Hints:
The protein is an alpha+beta fold. It has 2 domains: 3-237, Cupin (Jelly Rolls), CATH 2.60.120; 241-424, no CATH class. The protein has helices at 17-21, 54-57, 76-83, 98-111, 241-253, 262-270, 304-324, 346-385, 401-411, 420-424; strands spanning 3-6, 49-51, 88-90, 115-124, 131-134, 139-146, 149-154, 188-194, 198-202, 208-211, 224-233. The strands form 2 sheets. It has a 7-stranded antiparallel beta sheet with strand order 1-9-6-11-4-3-2. It has a 4-stranded antiparallel beta sheet with strand order 5-10-7-8, with no helix packed on it. Residues 92-241 form the JmjC domain. It comes from Cladocopium goreaui. It is found in: Nucleus.
Amino acid sequence: xxxxxxxxxxxxxxxxxxxxxxxxxxxxxxxxxxxxxxxxxxxxxxxxxxxxxxxxxxxxxxxxxxxxxxxxxxxxxxxxxxxxxxxxxxxxxxxxxxxxxxxxxxxxxxxxxxxxxxxxxxxxxxxxxxxxxxxxxxxxxxxxxxxxxxxxxxxxxxxxxxxxxxxxxxxxxxxxxxxxxxxxxxxxxxxxxxxxxxxxxxxxxxxxxxxxxxxxxxxxxxxxxxxxxxxxxxxxxxxxxxxxxxxxxxxxxxxxxxxxxxxxxxxxxxxxxxxxxxxxxxxxxxxxxxxxxxxxxxxxxxxxxxxxxxxxxxxxxxxxxxxxxxxxxxxxxxxxxxxxxxxxxxxxxxxxxxxxxxxxxxxxxxxxxxxxxxxxxxxxxxxxxxxxxxxxxxxxxxxxxxxxxxxxxxxxxxxxxxxxxxxxxxxxxxxxxxx
Length: 435
């Protein structure tokens, strides 16, 4: 559930419009320190900077969408002009600013999750709407670092289910032309005007809308609202229960002559109807939920004993989930099959039931061990290729960083090579959007 924290000076003033404007200047980047003036090109913040559509601030649009800025030059003057009509959004500010990178790295270390990034949202105070009702794919901590902003957060509902999974046909709502109506969401959970120095926790998939209307009286030092949305990337990089099951099913069963894997397909079809399958994996600080023995341990993924405890706990978790969701049949796939690739006669299935279950469990353990060992590599990859303080990004100009950062987030291999296709898509005939 969402909640608000009072953090005072720990958050207040940590990032402002003036600091963000410095990202448009070469002096803010180490890579330009020794380059001559004539070789410098104007900084556009390609892939990072955009403005929300002016119609949103005028309460004429009901979908969270970006303005077309392909021909807009990124200058202080153009930014200030854009702020008169909409919200300035910097995606993955951690890839541009060492200060924002350190904030993300602090949460990465505290929660022991692989990828943590931050978006920055800056709006003028007293704007009727800064973001219409919509959902996001991340668990986020929103830090109000300048000015104030009103947050309304609603519960999920049958029309807007909890914990959406993108490749199960559950995309973000209220974006890119899709309109999310109040009648579709659950009850109002939180209606709070977040003041400078306060933080709100926003769970993944919970509908929310923001505004800075009637907030100027709360700020005496600035006429802008600046907030950092620091997000724990889990579902968006494939770290959910359904994908572990799909990967294990695929490794065990493989694809038939039509390029299909029936076990993985059954799991995918069941995902939208079963909330627990859409849960993020209990990794990092949540690992103790499936392995209470880790309660007092420091989670060092290099420790074989800790790995064994977590894998054992996860196997039990998946087995319980299989029964709860009525997915026992997926354990049967991969044995003797008929000509069409489906399992053979019932008597053979019954005779092989125990060995099939054992084989699937073996595949599951293999996947889980691989993932446990991948987590520290993922954190290192994030620090080097997603944070501006890393040895890779700090050697690259800001307009060339987005491609490197995005590739690190999308392509990091959390799953074994032979099973990754099933975690991303259970059939080569059914491609899904890139995570």
